[in-house]
Amino acid sequence: AQSVTQLGSHVSVSEGALVLLRCNYSSSVPPYLFWYVQYPNQGLQLLLKYTSAATLVKGINGFEAEFKKSETSFHLTKPSAHMRDAAEYFCAVRRTNAGKSTFGDGTTLTVKP
Amino acid sequence: DGGITQSPKYLFRKEGQNVTLSCEQNLNHDAMYWYRQDPGQGLRLIYYSQIVNDFQKGDIAEGYSVSREKKESFPLTVTSAQKNPTAFYLCASSIEGEGRTTGELFFGEGSRLTVL
User: Fold this and answer.
1) Residue B37 · residue B96 · CB < 8 Å
2) How many Cα atoms within 13 Å fall on the side-chain side of residue A14?
3) Cβ–Cβ under 8 Å, residues A106 and A89
4) How many CB pairs under 8 A join A and B?
5) How far apart are CA B44 and CA A91, in angstroms?
């Protein structure tokens, strides 16, 4: 079984401030982990993924995430928020040998000027 | 450009009618998926298919049906048995297979279904 918990359905930051979106997972086998971003009325696009290589993963648009096995976490960060980062963010997990991804409920990021 | 095309983008349906959502991909991906998205509930898996002529139920398959007659196409039918069909529907695909699995999903732009 696998599951994802995203802490905080809404996060608000000021432009230029640190962005931290939290994700905890459970998986019975080593997982693949992903962060996706969704803009209004659009599909999701991949921000970054962890596939058992480096534990610190860098993605697009200046985002990065760190896989911490001991904490079963995969939090998403960005040092300095920009207005264009306002969107909904989804954390997802899947087993390395199975085709189904399980998604968290999403976190809506608001960036204040 | 390669990608996933969903149509229609917006669809209105009267209660009791079946409706079919189209999903076509030219990425040569093996696996295809249908997700339903409701506000505050993330994405829930309806059906998925890893090879042609085979598909499996996801977490919320009741009231839906699919077919996978071609690698490129994975249409979803929302039947009248689906009690609350108004939602945003997302189709996705992924590369699968020995030594080729990347795990990431490639999504279409979505279809918004509203039942009147």
Assistant:
1) no
2) 2
3) yes
4) 64
5) 13
Confidence check: pLDDT of A100 > 90: no
**For residue B83, what pLDDT is reported?**
87
Residue A42 DSSP code: S
| Residue A62 phi, psi dihedral angles, 5° rounding | 80, 5
pLDDT tens digits, B55-95: 999 999 999 999 999 999 999 999 988 889 999 999 999 98
Answer yes or no: do B102 and A51 touch at CB < 8 A.
Answer: yes
pLDDT of the residue at A95: 80
Contact A43 B108 (CB under 8 A): yes
Written as six digits, the tokens of B69 are: 């007659």
Q: How far is A80 from chain B (nearest CA, A)?
A: 26
A5 vs A83: CA distance, rounded Å? 26
| Token digits of residue A98 | 């199975």
Q: How far is CA A12 from the centre of its chain?
A: 16
Q: What was the pLDDT predicted at A27?
A: 81
Could you tell me how many residues make up chain A? 113
With beta carbons less than 8 A apart as the criterion, state whether B55 and A24 touch: no
Handedness of CA A4, A8, A14, A18 (dihedral sign): negative
